[in-house]
Amino acid sequence: MLKNENEAPVNWRDRVLNSKSASFCGAKWFNGTIWLGSGATTSCHHPPPHKVDLEELKNNPSALYNTPYKKLMRKQMLEGTRPNECQYCWKIEDLGKEHISDRYYKSIIYTEDELTQAQQTPWNHNVNPIQLEIAFDMNCNFACSYCNASFSTTWAHDINKHGPYQHLKSDGAGAYTHNGAWAQPYGPKNTNNPYVQAFWEWWETDLQFSLRQLRVTGGEATQSSDFWKLIDWYEAHPDCEVELAVNSNLGIKLNKIKRLCEVSHKVKRFAMFTSNESTGANSEYIRDGLNWEEWIANVRYMLEHGKFHTFHCMMTINALCLASLDSFHEALFDIREEYPDTKLDVSYNILRFPSLQSITTLPEEVREERAIHYRNWMASNLHRMREHEVLGLSRTIAYIEEVDDGHDRSTDLESRQHDFVSFYKQYDVRRGKNFAEAFDNWPKLVEWYSKITTEEIPVEALTLGDATEWGKLNYDEVIENAKNEGLI
Fold first, then answer.
1. For 318-344, what is the mean pLDDT?
2. Which stretches within 244-324 are classed as H helix?
3. Residue 197: inside a domain, yes or no?
4. Chain-centroid distance, C-alpha 447
5. pLDDT of res. 6
6. Are residues 139 and 36 part of one domain?
7. Residue 254 in domain
8. Burial of 82 (0-12, 13-18, 19+ CB in 10 A)
9. How many domains does the chain have?
10. How far apart are the C-alpha atoms of 32 and 393, rounded to whole Å?
């Protein structure tokens, strides 16, 4: 049973999800991301990743997805407990019952029968995902400011060339003091990678028959040789019912753009996902490697020549994108009106990590000015916005106004603001950029930025560790408690 189109999201959430439990979310059963290059996984893009046990893979390739930790998260949800790793949604829901978190958006894509099936499945059983996202490796031609060397080889090159970032003291600072070597232990071509091998085994025996959508991300998906192996597989199996979805920054060469468009006409269902959230100099500053005019031209080319079931833009709502989030919407509105038969759409993903780049790091007067600006802009553009866009921007404005910390282990505001300025000063030198020039369309931000002083807190060597350490404290606590209770 699918959602009645006339049913309000709040009503559906309360009727379908909250009737199962106050913390129930379909993503914990049917959605997952697996970074095959390093062997890490999570249930959606909000919780931190955790490791996959190689021993469990030997007899069960689905252990890439069905980890003991993830099963314990399902148990918590069945009991109505809020998993700590899902703070992104709890922060939104605690703004008020009228605010819709991603718990709704990540569940509404499944039928009510499927969600009931999840509720009725014992928590410690293996389940098959319905939507699965994989990253074969971290190869990437961009080095976006809020990314790091764990997810981009270009970022890794920055760290290896210039050394770790200095003078940072807030939570998340460690993301800029390592070179990401942990994330690609089997090399850029995944030579003899057991996680990739397990994926292909699972794909051939089960996934190609049970999945509804397979989504490939990165790094930049098209930089991976394994990605093109999958493209070849789809071309050789045109009757495959699994929708192929691709994440691309669309800063790639035209021959790859054309190839994706060609493949989109050969598979049964093809979905295209890209990412951006600001325009012009703002977007080129935030997403180092992006050329705004090239990006917008590539979007138009793909809509003109491809056959995509969905063409979706994922917006990462960070502090800096508030400079031109409005003009970005307007650019997409124009394209949507230019290509009325396409399904060009957007999603709102509020950045929490690294917290120094979060909306919550901006000073109160700057946040207040932006909230007023976007309320006025939205009132003038409601006629061009879809229902979920109104909801998404409304919750973003509420977040700007009301949320003080992006997650419960966030460091104090003074430390984050110190790191905001210290980070971007170093970013400018390393990347040949200029903060004040890039954001001259937001004078209030630049004025505040110029007044913050930073102290020198030297980091002398690369930091050891990996991205899973972000959630390790919570992970270890959950696993230890489960062992004490005899659950695993």
1. 94
2. 254-264, 280-286, 292-305
3. yes
4. 30
5. 79
6. no
7. yes
8. middle
9. 2
10. 25
